[in-house]
Amino acid sequence: MARLIKTVSAGKDRLLLEKGIVVAIRELTKQPDLNKTTYDLVAYIALSLQAIGDTVDLSVAAWEKRGYWIKADHYRMEWNWTTRMGEELRQAIINEEWGNVTRVIAQVTQKMSKVNVSQKNRLGTPWIGSWERLISPNHGH
What does the DSSP 8-state code read for residue 81? Predict the structure, then answer.
């Protein structure tokens, strides 16, 4: 049986998640009122932030294997906000604390300000169904 080779790296996964967050924030600003799409968008951003946080250990594992501890620690510090803000956003949306949702989204927008995504991107609507994934008991949080 042939070996399966993963073609997408943690870095590429992270970049795709970042772009998805930027597109979701853009779409969130277009929502006229609270609706199912609003919940999906906020849940998607929370889940994506947590997924980015999960990629950090994968990225630094190779550096740590070679003894690049300082580089690995610096990288972790650069990205540790994603897990924290993802959890804050998750709690805020579950508790319907819209002031906190707005505050965290504003912080995420600032952190993602250097991520370029064209208006004609091919990301589609990856947030559809995110609210259900976020509140499902087997999500793991």
Answer: H
Helix-helix angle 10-29:98-111, to 10 degrees:
130
CA distance readout (Å), 16 to 2, 12, 29, 113: 28, 6, 20, 15
Collect all residues with Cβ–Cβ distance below 8 Å to 22 and sequence separation of at least 6: 112, 115, 117
What backbone phi and psi angles, to 5 degrees, belong to 37? -65, -40
- Report yes or no: 28 and 105 within 8 Å, Cβ to Cβ: yes
Specify the DSSP class assigned to residue 136. Answer: S
Answer for the pair 25, 113: CB distance below 8 angstroms, yes or no.
no
Tell me: the pLDDT tens digits for 60-75? 888 889 999 999 999 9
Residue type, position 18, single letter: E
Q: CA 45 to CA 82: how far, in whole Å?
A: 10
pTM of the predicted structure, to 2 decimals: 0.86
